[in-house]
Request: fold
Amino acid sequence: MKAAFDSVGESVKASAEAASSMFSALAGFEGTGSKRWFLEDLLEEQIELEKIAVEAQAELSKAQAEYVRARAERMESGEALITVDGAGLQPHLEMIMWELFGAIRIRATQEGLDQLLLGA
Reply:
């Protein structure tokens, strides 16, 4: 989730810098009227792109926050993320299954790592 917020900040910063540069160029512009209008159109397009980028990043951040909250709620509810059911197995097969699970080292997937780092 930190990455999403960092991304929002970087997008806004880059867009603001581009718009600032365009404003500076436009303020000191000494060309013809048609070229000035062209620059103004470019600036308006840049501002619109900024708005779209910020809205998209905000939606992404909101979706990621909702995802983390949902995962946290699921873990807090005590509902298992992985369920193993040996029902219907003969007792000796169930015993072997549990022995195997005890011997297997589980590697952390990206999601598992996120859960450890985020506490969710």
Notes: Residues 2-118 form one domain. The helical segments are 2-27, 33-76, 91-103, 110-118.
